[in-house]
Design brief:
CATH class of the largest domain: Alpha Beta
Largest sheet: 9 strands, mixed
Structural class: alpha/beta
Strand content: 15-25%
Length: 268
């Protein structure tokens, strides 16, 4: 038995939320509960969608936060309401493929030593027929551990994990832009075992704005702070720290069109 955890905030589009929820409710292995955290006040359209689905589907559990807390804090609050140890994450604008949960549960069933399972994701724009790129990740724990020293080793919207292992590592921390990456690192340090299914199990909604948001001096400075934290907790050494900073500062400060090309063709 497992839960699905989502966080919803005011800037989401109601049509995207419907697609996301419908994909959860059309799974070959249906979730036993869906915990949706309303992270602060929503639009009337979003509230109407949430109310409609909560009325029609008893498995949908709604958690309301009076003020926007940010992703990390909202997910931590949602975890408190997840009834089962296995928890799948999902973003409210992404679309799960029909056999996503079935394939992830099979890994947990056959490999009880595994704490966290994700997969590749198809990054699309507009509709799922327009795939821009596929974010592929290493399969086995040893390579995942090494990959994590340079980039996030897990596709967060496609992850399923053991709640107990997440809490043992301290849960999500409020670290803007890097809440999930920071959690994976602390779980790795804590001895959690990782696995990535070598196929895409989710459509990830992308846009030109996404690549634009990943640029600029402010993003670069936040990233510098994060890399310094990885150095502080001794997940990376000074040589990797310097290499990461050089590469990342360049990628954040180049023109958006060039950064888009790098993400689509070199990092995917």
């Amino acid at each position: 038995m497992f839960s699905v955890l989502l966080s919803l905030y005011i800037k989401e589009q109601s049509s995207h939320l419907k697609q996301s929820l419908d994909s959860l409710l059309a799974q070959s292995q249906l979730p036993d509960e869906i915990v949706l955290v309303k992270d602060g006040p929503l639009t009337l359209e979003l509230d109407a969608v949430v109310s409609d689905y909560a009325t029609r589907y008893r498995s949908l559990k709604v958690v309301t936060l009076p003020k926007n807390q940010g992703l990390g804090r909202a997910l931590n609050e949602g975890l408190k309401y997840c009834s089962y140890d296995l928890v799948a994450r999902m973003d409210t604008d992404d679309i799960a493929k029909p056999n996503r949960f079935e394939k992830q549960l099979e890994i947990f069933k056959n490999h009880p030593e595994i704490d966290i399972v994700s997969s590749w994701i198809d990054e699309f724009q507009g509709d799922t027929n327009h795939i821009l790129s596929i974010r592929k990740l290493p399969e086995y724990h040893k390579k995942i551990y090494q990959f994590a020293k340079k980039r996030s080793p897990i596709n967060h919207p496609a992850v399923m994990f053991r709640k107990s292992s997440v809490l043992a590592a301290g849960g999500y921390k409020h670290f803007p832009l890097f809440e999930d990456y920071y959690l994976w690192v602390r779980m790795l340090i804590n001895g959690a075992k990782f696995y990535n299914i070598q196929e895409s199990l989710l459509y990830f909604r992308s846009s030109s704005e996404m690549f634009k948001r990943r640029g600029g001096i402010n993003y670069a400075l936040i990233e510098l702070k994060f890399e310094r934290e990885l150095l502080r907790i001794k997940f990376i050494d000074k040589s990797i720290f310097i290499k990461n900073i050089l590469i990342r500062f360049i990628s954040r400060l180049i023109p958006n069109k060039l950064r888009t090309i790098i993400y689509k063709h070199l990092l995917r």
